[in-house]
Structure formats: structure tokens, C-alpha cells
Design a protein that fits this description.
Blueprint (H helix, E strand, L loop, with lengths): L2 E7 L4 H4 L4 H8 E2 L7 E7 L5 E5 L6 E2 L15 E7 L4 E5 L2 E5 L4 E4 L6 E5 L8 E7 L7 E3 L5 E5 L8 E7 L10 E7 L10 E3 L3 E8 L7 E7 L2 E7 L3 E5 L6 E4 L4 E8 L8 E3 L6
Parallel strand pairs: 1-3
Antiparallel strand pairs: 2-20, 3-4, 4-11, 5-10, 6-9, 6-11, 7-8, 7-10, 9-12, 13-14, 14-15, 15-22, 16-23, 17-20, 17-22, 18-19, 18-21
Cofactor: Zn(2+)
Function: Catalyzes the isomerization of 5-dehydro-4-deoxy-D-glucuronate to 3-deoxy-D-glycero-2,5-hexodiulosonate.
Enzyme class: isomerase
């Protein structure tokens, strides 16, 4: 039987966070151990009932199991799932259909899929599947998107240390979804700021999953209200949950990549309330 770990985190408002110390912030908003061998890990957030997880099949094929908290016969009875591989070559099988995923490839699975498994092509270089899930009101078709196969944007500049490529793998102009959106942002050499100017979007939450962070390096993730900012130090393959009321931005000790995942009532990617650097406190 697949080893599945589940953690439930209730929503926290901005007034409470003003009094948090470092460990309280990390306990509430950092998902530090998503990627563990032969395990599926889930963190259930009560922001948009968004779920963030990881599946690392090394010695066995892992099965997507339902959870008591979902009160559903199968995991995808009333949910949709986004998957991005940040490891070696792997295969996701959904109701008998195999979807090969190489490094940074994406896969969308709509609600109604009953049997989903995760496997690696080579045990020595296992796949590392990063998972996002949100409630779904209807079923849309499964779709694989190879890295670079979605919509691509080039933003920022070396002058402001934020030159980056944004790969919109799972937005509504690429994949039809209920509310889930995902993509990968890759910073260029010499750039370290991932999102500046910082922004909020009160109509949806977001989760940042940091990867390609060397072991000796780190990323400082900024969150909180624009005039009440807080920070969390993040290492490789860790994720930060960003509530709708919070900004989300980060600066690394060298360049890196991150996966952004969103869910909420608005599928307009550009729906953002920006805050200039000189407005932040």
C-alpha cells in the first residue's frame, strides 16, 4: 500500500500573522518535506481548499489514494490535479492511459479520473512529481504539456536583477481547467528576484515551490501585507503557501527556479494588485 502523509492547515488572517515569530510563520506557511522517497505527501490548506503535495516513486509505483478529509470515494471525485516533474523521467498513469513526463513537463488531470499511479523510469534517477490540487465543479480533459509547450513570457532585466523566463504550462489559454493554474519561472544567471514588483490577488491564493536551489544556497521568500511584510528562508524543494491577502516575492543567493500554482474564482493570469518596491514596508 502506498505510504500517504496528510497535514491539515487552517486559514490564518493578516491580523494574527502580525504577532507570529519565525517558527510560527514556518509552521503555518512553509511546506518543508513534500518530497520523500516512496511517499505521497499532502498539505491541505483552507485557502481555496488548495492542496500541495509531492510523490517520489523510487522502489515502487505509488497510487493516488483518497483521504478521509475529502469524504470521497476517489481523490479526483470532486478535484482536479496538476503535476510537474522536477526529477528523472517518470510516468503518470490515469485510468489506464500512460503520460510520460520528463524534467519540467506538466500534466493536468481532470475530475473523474479514478485510478492514478506514479512511477519512475529509472530507480537511480527517480521522478519527483510536484502536485497541486483544487476543487472542481466539472470534468475537463486530461492534457500533457511538455516544458516550453505552453505560453512563454520573458520578463525583467539584469539591471533590476530579475531577468526571467515564465513558462505558463497550465493557464486557461493552454489547458482548460476549473480553477487550477500552474507554471514554471526560471531566473537567468545573475538574476535573483523572482517577482518584483510584488503583488497580491485577493481573488485567489498561490503557492511557490522552489527548486534548482543549490544545497549551499537559499531563497528568502517575502510575504504578508504590503506594509507588514514578513520573510521565510526556503531551501530546495520547499514550498510557501501564500494567502490571498499576502504579497509573494523572493530573492535568492543565486539564480533558481520555482513553480507557481494558483486557484480561485478568477482565471485571468494578469489579475494582480501591484505594489512598487518603494511602497513596501
Amino acid at each position: 500500500m502506498t505510504k500517504t502523509h496528510f497535514e491539515n492547515r487552517y486559514a490564518i488572517g493578516p491580523n494574527e500573522v502580525k504577532g507570529f515569530d519565525t517558527q510560527q510563520l514556518r509552521d503555518a506557511f512553509l511546506a518543508a518535506t513534500l518530497m520523500q522517497d516512496d511517499t505521497i505527501n499532502w498539505v491541505y490548506t483552507h485557502y481555496e481548499r488548495f492542496m500541495v503535495g509531492g510523490a517520489v516513486p523510487v522502489n515502487e509505483t505509488l497510487t493516488l489514494e483518497t483521504l478521509d478529509a475529502l469524504k470521497a470515494d476517489t481523490f479526483l471525485s470532486r478535484r482536479e490535479l496538476g503535476i510537474i516533474n522536477v526529477g528523472g523521467a517518470g510516468v503518470v498513469t490515469a485510468d489506464g492511459v500512460e503520460y510520460p513526463l520528463n524534467y519540467k513537463d506538466s500534466l493536468y488531470l481532470g475530475s473523474g479520473n479514478k485510478q492514478v499511479t506514479f512511477s519512475s523510469v529509472e530507480r537511480t534517477t527517480p521522478a519527483r512529481f510536484y502536485l497541486n490540487s483544487a476543487p472542481a465543479h466539472q470534468s475537463f480533459a486530461n492534457k500533457r504539456v511538455p516544458f516550453g509547450g505552453g505560453k512563454q513570457l520573458q520578463m525583467g532585466s539584469l539591471t533590476t536583477s530579475n531577468e526571467r523566463d515564465i513558462n505558463q504550462s497550465m493557464i486557461n489559454s493552454v489547458v482548460e481547467t476549473c480553477q487550477l493554474q500552474m507554471g514554471i519561472t526560471c531566473l537567468k544567471d545573475g538574476s535573483v528576484w523572482n517577482t518584483m514588483p510584488a503583488h497580491q490577488h485577493d481573488r485567489r491564493n498561490e503557492v511557490y515551490f522552489y527548486f534548482e536551489v543549490p544545497e549551499s544556497q537559499a531563497v528568502c521568500h517575502f510575504m504578508g501585507e504590503p506594509t507588514e511584510t514578513r520573510h521565510i528562508w526556503v531551501h530546495n524543494e520547499q514550498a510557501v503557501i501564500s494567502p490571498p491577502w499576502s504579497i509573494h516575492s523572493g530573492c535568492g543567493t543565486q539564480n533558481y527556479s520555482f513553480i507557481w500554482g494558483m486557484a480561485g474564482e478568477n482565471l485571468d493570469y494578469s489579475d494582480m494588485d501591484f505594489h512598487a518596491p518603494n511602497q513596501l514596508r
